[in-house]
Automatic annotation (TrEMBL):
One of its GO terms (cellular component) is cytosol. Homodimer. Residues 24-220 form the Metallo-beta-lactamase domain. This is Metallo-beta-lactamase domain-containing protein 1. It catalyses: a ribonucleotidyl-ribonucleotide-RNA + H2O = a 3'-end ribonucleotide-RNA + a 5'-end 5'-phospho-ribonucleoside-RNA + H(+). It is found in: Cytoplasm, Cytosol. The lineage of its organism: Eukaryota, Sar, Stramenopiles, Oomycota, Saprolegniomycetes. InterPro entries: MBLAC1, Metallo-B-lactamas, RibonucZ/Hydroxyglut_hydro. It comes from the Eukaryota. SMART domains: Lactamase_B. Its main location: cytoplasm. Endoribonuclease that catalyzes the hydrolysis of histone-coding pre-mRNA 3'-end. Involved in histone pre-mRNA processing during the S-phase of the cell cycle, which is required for entering/progressing through S-phase. Cleaves histone pre-mRNA at a major and a minor cleavage site after the 5'-ACCCA-3' and the 5'-ACCCACA-3' sequence, respectively, and located downstream of the stem-loop. May require the presence of the HDE element located at the histone pre-RNA 3'-end to avoid non-specific cleavage.
Length: 230
């Protein structure tokens, strides 16, 4: 199996003197076999930057097979329309063009770690997953920032390459791409202020840490190696 991960864009979130925020999200590209998966898209105004970053890697929007948006906030879903040929996952919503795919998780379900979709080692995309254990990419529920948040967990017994946005490379076995479950490295003092359900959010963070990722891609910052204190 060939798998590689690139943080295409480092998200940002900073409070302005007016009390407003300057923010846009991290964007990550995952390649498994011949399939390309995008995790979060940025806001609508990030479209030229996103297209340029894909083109720099020899990809066009139609080469993306799956787009996973960790939740439905506008800074994470703004470029979905660039990818009409892809399957779209937004939180717990799964769409293939006009078809709404049953994810098997009710809107009111607050369980953590439920798998709603996978990408297999040969690149096959599956929803309504009964046994996700062998899939290198799993989309799992991690509610808290919003009630419908999901994260993307990547795992392989064979090491794979993780490329940071600055071009630095690491060899890893586990990566978690978590949207705003983490805003950024060192967000402990303020993530709760942006969370719909802080108590559940904290449990989702603990779930991801217990999974022991070597790299974590947050919603609004550079990838980092998490510790138990995060």
């Amino acid at each position: 199996m060939v798998m590689k991960v690139v943080q295409l864009r480092v998200g940002r979130a900073r409070e302005l003197a007016t009390g407003d925020w300057d923010c846009d999200c991290s964007v990550t590209l995952v390649t498994i076999a011949t399939k390309h998966v995008l995790v979060d898209t940025g806001g609508a105004w990030a479209a030229p930057e996103l297209q340029a970053s894909l083109a720099a890697r020899g990809l066009a929007p139609e080469d993306i097979s799956l787009v996973v948006c960790s939740h439905g906030h506008s800074d994470h879903v703004g470029c979905l329309a660039l990818f009409p040929h892809a399957t779209h996952i937004v939180g717990r919503d799964i769409n293939r063009r006009h078809e709404y795919v049953a994810a098997g998780v009710l809107a009111r379900d607050q369980s953590i770690g439920r798998c709603t979709a996978t990408v297999s080692a040969d690149g096959a995309i599956t929803t309504l997953v009964l046994d996700p254990s062998d899939a290198p990419l799993q989309v799992v529920t991690t509610p808290g920032h919003t009630g419908s948040c999901v994260s993307v967990l990547l795992a392989s017994e064979s090491p794979f390459n993780f490329e940071r946005a600055d071009g630095a490379n690491s060899t890893v076995h586990r990566v978690a791409i978590v949207g705003d479950l983490w805003e950024c490295d060192g967000d402990e003092g303020w993530w709760r202020d942006l969370s719909e359900m802080p108590a559940l959010h904290e449990k989702s963070r603990a779930f991801v840490l217990a999974w022991q990722p070597e790299m974590l891609v947050p919603g609004h910052g550079a990838a980092f190696a998490p510790t138990a204190q995060d």
